[in-house]
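Exam prep: given the inputs below (a chain plus 2-acetamido-2-deoxy-beta-D-glucopyranose), describe the expected output before reading on.
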Amino acid sequence: MGTQTFINCSLLAIIITFLVSSYSAHSQDLTFKLIHRDSPHSPLYNPLHTVSDRLKAAFLRSISRSRRFSTKTDDLQSGLIANGGEYFMSISIGTPPSKVVAIADTGSDLNWIQCKPCENCYKQKGPIFDKTHSSTYKTEACDSKPCNVLAKKEKGCDQSRNICKYLYAYGDQSFTKGDIATETISIDSSSGSPVSFPGTVFGCGYNNSGTFDGTGSGIIGLGRGPLSLISQLGSSIGKKFSYYLSNTSYSTNGTGVINLGTNSMPSNPSNGSAVLTTPLIYKTQNTYYYLNLEAITVGKTKIPYTGGGGGGSSLNEKTTGNIIIDSGTTFTFLESGFYEKFGAAVEASVTGAKRASDPQGMLTHCFKARHKEIGLPEITMHFTGADVKLSPTNAFLKKDEEIVCLSMIPTTDVAIYGNLVQADFRVGYDLEAKTLSFQRIDCSGSL
Ligand SMILES: *[C@@H]1O[C@H](CO)[C@@H](O)[C@H](O)[C@H]1NC(C)=O
Ligand SMILES: *[C@@H]1O[C@H](CO)[C@@H](O)[C@H](O)[C@H]1NC(C)=O
Ligand SMILES: *[C@@H]1O[C@H](CO)[C@@H](O)[C@H](O)[C@H]1NC(C)=O
Ligand SMILES: *[C@@H]1O[C@H](CO)[C@@H](O)[C@H](O)[C@H]1NC(C)=O
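Solution:
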């Protein structure tokens, strides 16, 4: 990557950031910071963890999270596993506002936070929201619209008080239970003062138990379903949001931003890198964002993608929408039959290095250099209508000075497009046009 290109790309990133923040002063176009869970600004930050500790933990989280998306279990309705994702958002709730740090999760819908008075709350950093001190807290009735949207097994009713209740049970015996309520939620916009969203539906969780220690105060749902923050803000943000994740390489401080609103979509300012647009596929399971992956090119070899449709009830649903895009899964999962050919093509085109095993025993395709630079193939993801060229940092991980591994792994279940491959792209979700777009805005992707 030449210096010239690098400067152009940095400039482009600055211009885009400027555009977004200047819009946000005037309309519902909002920019918020995302905090990677391993960054020093995260409540979970542990300075004693090495890069390799973090990678191993991220790998295990990816595996456990991939089960959430499984097409094979009945647990789909639980919607969540205790590990909600990789990025935190700082929000305030109630009047007067009380600050909480919650996971921003593209793989779930219902927003929930721990709520006092607790029957049973897990330990969190910082105070727990106390609904009795807020003047804007209001419970929802059992026949209310938000209550009716909950799945049967997630829904309850306190008949004596006419309050809708929710229960989310997770695969690992964790659960959260509480009242469905509305509150004023405000988010600190990075362009200035906090922006308030009165009457936001959320779960006020007073009985939360299990392995939640990695979850902050709760979850902000960014999924596609009716109770997610995105769906609730709906037309006021033109049903559009985008995010930009950077420095997820585990050697730097991971950061990102999320933008809500019509002007948040990638566009082509000053001849920037192209905006690549692909359809968002809608399925009966209405929380996740499905894309259609047609093929992957490794160097000069194009390999048709053969993975299945990842769930759904009709034949059409079974054959299209074969990969879920998710910001909360670090690694990328590809169907194992396809992966065999894909991995072989990667191995055949790596130069200056020999196949080696992962010192941590996680990744399948690692390469060890013999005192020289490793030649890595260019990898392009062919989504319908969008050929997304990955940088080496998207597709590979440097394990140590000598070993580089492919950051994609095989699965016998639904494929997932994880956050390492999304880094340094602006990823735009347009739920009105039903499209997803990618635009590379940083070219500093060398290993
Ligand atoms: C919390 O919910 C669980 C599961 O429904 C229940 O067994 C437990 O008794 C509840 N805890 C309290 C303190 O109410
Ligand atoms: C990401 O890391 C690069 C160098 O590793 C640095 O120059 C850049 O400012 C970082 N970006 C953010 C958003 O932190
Ligand atoms: C990460 O952030 C911390 C504190 O903000 C800083 O001391 C450290 O140098 C940063 N590391 C990198 C690689 O940027
Ligand atoms: C973008 O590129 C086109 C053709 O390459 C050129 O005509 C146009 O002036 C450029 N626009 C800007 C804003 O640089």
